[in-house]
Amino acid sequence: MQQTEYMTDTSEVRETSESTSLTTPSTAKQLEMQGRQIGNNIVAFFTALPQNIRSFWQQYKQPITNILLILLALIAVRVLFAVLAALNSIPLLAPTFQLIGILYSVWFVYRYLRTKSNREELASKLQSLFE
Hints:
Elements: E1 2-6, E2 13-17, H1 25-59, H2 61-88, H3 93-113, H4 116-130
Antiparallel strand pairs: 1-2
């Protein structure tokens, strides 16, 4: 490291050097030891990485699975909305789907909700479905 001294008396500028060499043999050995230690730490990290990932997966398997399922559900909903928007943009297709929905609702009410026996039949079907 060089230092520059300015003399107030004269206009002379002197440079003094604290050390002539940046690295001495002892600091070179220290740097080499530090480099090896860093290299050993990196090798140890990558050697233990598969075991660390395996233990992390075993510990947090359920939350990770839940998060992935939620993300997949969100993606599926976005794709569904995109498909529906594309279908809605086709002329006469949206009113046709509405008509089909209204006709199915009318049929369902006529078939299952009109009489007491039909309502009981629907209730028994729902009970068997949930068992």
